[in-house]
Design goal:
This protein is mainly beta. It is built from no helices and 11 strands. Strands 2, 4, 5, 6, 9, 10 and 11 form a 7-stranded mixed beta sheet that branches.
């Protein structure tokens, strides 16, 4: 059924950049908005970014505005999160998500921002 697989996480220094990818399958990708969430240790899962089905519109949590960019390639069933000027507070497991009858989540990818 619906499957989401994140990749691209890793260890990066403050001020560095990382691009996360999410490969989607099991639904008509181009018909659905896609979102990114993150969860830091001891914190609740937080919505980070959303992109509409055709990529026409994007939305971000205030803390990442100007630093993160969500995009998608509907021909490849991929959604991306470009993260620039990373800060230690961005450290979290990042999840790709879509609502198809219910909300579905990927397995997550760890992003660690540390010097």
């Amino acid at each position: 059924q619906v499957q989401l697989v994140e990749s691209g996480g890793g260890l990066v220094q403050p001020g560095g950049s990382l691009r996360l990818s999410c490969a989607a399958s099991g639904f008509t990708f181009s018909n659905y908005a896609m979102s990114w969430y993150r969860q830091a240790p001891g914190r609740e899962r937080e919505w980070v970014a959303r992109i509409t089905s055709g990529g026409e519109n994007t939305n971000y949590v205030d803390s990442v505005k100007g630093r993160f960019t969500v995009s998608r390639d509907n021909a490849k069933n991929l959604v991306y999160l470009q993260m620039n000027n990373l800060k230690p507070e961005d450290t979290a497991v990042y999840y790709c998500s879509v609502f198809v009858l219910s909300r579905h989540w990927g397995q997550g990818t760890q992003v660690t921002v540390s010097s």
